[in-house]
Amino acid sequence: MKEPAPRIALVTGANKGIGFEIARQLGVRGFHVFLTARDRTRGEEAAAKLEKAGARVTFLPLDVTEAKSIQAMAASLNQAVDHLDVLVNNAGILESSSVSVLKVSASEVERTWRTNTLGPLLVTQALAPLLQRSKHGTVINLSSGWGSLHDMGDEAAAYGISKAALNAVTRQCADAMKSPGVTVNSVCPGWVRTDMGGAGATRDVDAGADTVVWLATEAPRTITGKFLRDRKAIPW
Ligand SMILES: NC(=O)c1ccc[n+]([C@@H]2O[C@H](COP(=O)([O-])OP(=O)(O)OC[C@H]3O[C@@H](n4cnc5c(N)ncnc54)[C@H](OP(=O)(O)O)[C@@H]3O)[C@@H](O)[C@H]2O)c1
């Protein structure tokens, strides 16, 4: 009997942290994972680790703040596959968590927005044709509770603004891609022990990846245009 073709996923910023764990878990579930990272050496090392554990992984360089890098990644992916089932926009930065919105610098706001908001938008645009050719195209944007307008206070100003705007990208992309049946959601992974989350965070990367992997594999396809944590919708 012919084996079914593996599902195909691409994860941004997957050389470490939550992105690496998402790539690992999708690999374990039989996906062909395109692991992307802005640093070639770190990305290739991460891909080699997953390959050694038996996953099917291909490394592609990608800096989400560089239009040329996004174009080159999309061109390589288009040569390798004829569709994409899952895109995880995971790459993100947090420069400061305690600077007040009244003091945060324009340069921090701009850098953070370029990585956390514009990057995912441009990557999604570049890969939309491949996602639309999948029978179950899925986009997952790694957002944050700090981007929830519902709970927002004066903390992590640049980051919170960038993630609130990312949530707007989620809503608009969900609407734009609903007729080919591509689902698009934002996920808050919780407070996770990574370089970004710090050693005092309450969750391990396994828990941080859970809702993303669930959306990529077994969640009802009716879930789109939502903001989720722990597999449940939360307020914007
Ligand atoms: N950890 C938490 O508690 C937490 C909570 C809520 C939301 N999140 C979100 O979850 C996602 C993953 O966070 P994490 O905790 O795993 O962070 P992390 O350990 O700092 O990893 C971030 C990843 O993003 C990559 N990255 C940063 N800028 C990039 C760029 N311009 N192009 C490509 N890749 C870039 C990093 O690459 P380098 O190694 O090259 O720097 C790294 O691979 C982020 O979007 C974050 O905002 C995390």
Textual characterization of the structure:
This protein has 236 residues and is of the alpha/beta class. The chain has a single domain, classed as NAD(P)-binding Rossmann-like Domain (Rossmann fold), CATH 3.40.50.720. It is 42% helix and 15% strand. The chain has helices at 17-28, 40-52, 67-80, 106-132, 157-176, 205-217, and strands spanning 8-11, 32-37, 56-61, 86-89, 138-142, 183-187, 227-229, 232-233. It has an eight-stranded mixed β-sheet with strand order 3-2-1-4-5-6-7-8, with helices on both faces. Helix 1 (17-28) packs across helix 6, helix 3 (67-80) runs parallel beside helix 4 (106-132) and helix 4 runs parallel beside helix 5. The termini are far apart. The relative contact order is 0.14. The mean pLDDT is 97. NADP nicotinamide-adenine-dinucleotide phosphate (NAP) is lined by residues 12-13, 15-19, 37-39, 42, 62-65, 90-93, 115, 142, 144, 188-189, 191-192, 194-197, 201.
